[in-house]
Design brief:
InterPro entries: ABM_dom (IPR007138), Dimeric_a/b-barrel (IPR011008). By secondary structure, this protein is α+β, with helices and mostly antiparallel strands. It has 2 helices and 4 strands. The chain has a single domain, classed as Alpha-Beta Plaits.
Length: 98
């Protein structure tokens, strides 16, 4: 079943200007990862340091493979350098009928 992952991010106040460039570099690799069906970045209109990354994956297995890759030296990103707090990940099954 397809999965939508929401990654809630809070940037350091002094790094808000760096956020787009850092995310752009990270998301190039994310978009190219097998199973990625699209990504968008939402910026909180009341707080530009608060971002939500919306990721669409073909399956939970592909999303988990991506997250495992990000935990390796090869997949590591510089995201932590600009974050004020750890990211919060929430995943949803998509395409299901209730």
């Amino acid at each position: 079943m397809a999965v939508t992952a929401l990654l809630d991010l809070h940037l350091k106040a002094d790094r808000v200007q760096d956020g787009p460039a850092v995310l752009d570099a990270i998301l190039r690799d994310t978009r190219a990862f097998e199973g990625s069906e699209g990504i968008e970045v939402l910026v909180d209109v009341a707080d530009p340091a608060h971002l939500t990354v919306v990721e669409h994956w073909t399956s939970m297995e592909r999303d988990e493979a991506y997250r495992a890759w990000r935990a390796t030296p090869e997949g590591a990103s510089g995201l932590g350098e600009v974050l004020a707090a750890p990211p919060v990940l929430t995943r949803y099954e998509t395409g299901s009928t209730l």
